[in-house]
């Protein structure tokens, strides 16, 4: 599953006859839903009066998320923070980061449950128009679309989107910067929307990133990505010890220096994990394409075992064979659509190394 999309963190909220949107939020010690206060009604409700629901995709059944306690109900800045019981999807909530120091003209994405179709979430794209860090608010506008449709007031068409999480993407990572409050005027003039920033939540969140400091942002993101992938590699080694040991053994044949073999193995596991998630998405969403991919792989299996697996005298011999095989695969995969942005040949060679379909040993 791909997690770094705004819709993956989107929830629907019902309270006191009101329906709105919200966004899942990781805190210091627990998890929350952040939404607009007016989505909960004119006065502070109790947690058991709020229904929080989430979809895995826009057509799936709604799943209930249990509200534990309302931590904040701020009508002045129009936000509410609800503590939730959400342990089973912990992984999801650590895939994005929290951002402040928003700059005007930044592109944003948000996703919520529009009043005209409350049964399916809908993503939107826009940009930041202006900000006020002092009072923790900012204004956005839609890009490439409009709330003014079919003669209906923009206020009516935007109804239900209040509380939607607003994300900015940096280095392919989403940063939550705040939530939607309300459209500007009943006509949604210029498709502008007032928003509340995460400034008001600092006591609940462990850390956030200054999005105006590009150099520190890049370094922070790279460090976090490295830490995340290191944890994933350790987990992968424990859960797939045989695969990892076989892959590592082959790399010690391919690369004479142990440090190089260690580095390459770590990179391959990172790539394999990322590509495996995307392969699974293709399998679920594009079964015919996935079938073509697997048929090509199947035709190569005997050739890999017979013509490429062997004892070698030098590391370069094995490297040459590996590259030759990868290039042959790449030629076969060129007939598939390129929308996946994947190097399927690299993914398949890594898998073959890990299951010993492609096997290299070194002559003593």
From TrEMBL:
Domain Peptidase S1 per the UniProt entry, residue ranges: 9-87
Mitochondrion in keyword set: no
UniProt cross-references to InterPro entries, sorted A to Z: Peptidase_S1_PA, Peptidase_S1_PA_chymotrypsin, Trypsin_dom, TRYPSIN_HIS
Transmembrane regions listed in the UniProt entry: none
Signal peptide start-end: none
Enzyme Commission identifier(s): 3.4.21.-
Keywords: Hydrolase
Record bears the keyword Hydrolase: yes
Gene Ontology terms for molecular function: hydrolase activity
Protein name: Trypsin-like serine protease
Organism: Chitinophaga hostae
């Amino acid at each position: 599953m791909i997690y770094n999309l705004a819709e993956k963190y989107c929830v629907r909220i019902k309270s006191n006859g009101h329906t709105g949107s919200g966004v899942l939020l990781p805190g210091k010690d627990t998890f929350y839903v952040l939404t607009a206060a007016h989505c909960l009604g004119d006065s502070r409700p109790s947690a058991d009066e709020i229904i929080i629901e989430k979809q895995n995709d826009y057509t799936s059944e709604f799943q209930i998320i249990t509200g534990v306690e309302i931590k904040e109900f701020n009508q002045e800045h129009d936000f509410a923070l609800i503590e939730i019981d959400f342990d089973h999807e912990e992984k999801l909530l650590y895939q994005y980061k929290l951002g402040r120091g928003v700059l005007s003209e930044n592109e944003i994405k948000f996703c919520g449950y529009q009043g005209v179709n409350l049964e399916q979430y809908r993503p939107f794209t826009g940009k930041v128009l202006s900000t006020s860090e002092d009072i923790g608010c900012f204004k956005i506008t839609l890009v490439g679309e409009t709330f003014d449709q079919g003669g209906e007031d923009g206020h009516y068409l935007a109804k239900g989107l209040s509380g939607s999480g607003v994300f900015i993407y940096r280095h392919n990572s989403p940063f939550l910067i705040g939530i939607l409050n309300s459209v500007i005027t009943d006509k949604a003039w210029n498709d502008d929307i007032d928003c509340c920033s995460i400034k008001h939540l600092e006591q609940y969140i462990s850390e956030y990133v200054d999005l105006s400091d590009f150099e520190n942002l890049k370094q922070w993101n790279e460090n976090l990505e490295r830490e995340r992938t290191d944890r994933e590699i350790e987990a992968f080694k424990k859960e797939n010890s045989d695969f990892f040991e076989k892959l590592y053994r082959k790399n010690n044949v391919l690369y004479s220096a142990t440090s190089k073999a260690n580095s390459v193995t770590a990179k391959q596991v990172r790539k394999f994990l990322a590509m495996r998630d995307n392969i699974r998405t293709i399998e679920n969403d594009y079964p015919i394409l996935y079938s073509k991919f697997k048929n090509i792989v199947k035709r190569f299996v005997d050739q890999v075992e017979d013509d490429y697996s062997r004892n070698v005298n030098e590391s370069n011999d094995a490297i040459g064979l590996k590259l030759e095989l990868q290039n042959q695969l790449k030629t076969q995969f060129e007939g598939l659509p390129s929308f996946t942005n994947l190097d399927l040949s690299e993914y398949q060679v890594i898998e073959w190394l890990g299951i010993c379909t492609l096997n290299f040993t070194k002559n003593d």
